[in-house]
Write a structure and sequence with these properties.
Elements: H1 2-14, E1 20-22, H2 28-36, E2 53-56, E3 59-63, H3 64-72, H4 76-79, E4 91-95, E5 103-107
Antiparallel strand pairs: 1-5, 2-3, 2-4, 4-5
């Protein structure tokens, strides 16, 4: 999971997409928000969704597999609901680097009014 986190973070940094880390292990409210805002069809059969889970504000974009597919097909900005030239932020929930039982949310909020619909 650490490798997946680093992959997403490197992409965001390389493309100058701002983000703010929020540790959801310290906030049950934020953790529940993340779980609640993942569409039912994207929920695992058992347990909670594994990070990273990616959001653009309240809009769910997808998980790491969706991000990776978008990266491979050069459609990540569309996946994130962004236009390539916009300076923006997105939400990502990821597992803590040191303890796989902890969750960490990288929180990003879109700065520009225009955005596309993200879909996985």
């Amino acid at each position: 999971i650490k490798k997946r986190q680093q992959d997403v973070v490197r992409f965001l940094e390389a493309n100058r997409i701002g983000f703010e880390e929020v540790d959801i292990t310290m906030s049950e409210e934020k953790r529940q928000w993340m779980y609640k805002n993942i569409p039912e069809e994207r929920q695992p059969a058992q347990g909670n969704p594994l990070p990273p889970q990616i959001f653009n504000d309240d809009q769910y974009c997808g998980d790491y597999d969706c991000f990776f597919e978008a990266k491979e097909s050069n459609t990540v900005f569309s996946f994130l609901g962004l236009k390539p030239s916009l300076a923006s932020k997105v939400n990502i929930a990821i597992t803590d680097l040191y303890d796989s039982s902890c969750d960490l949310q990288l929180e990003f909020t879109l700065r520009e009014a225009e955005r596309s619909t993200c879909s996985c």
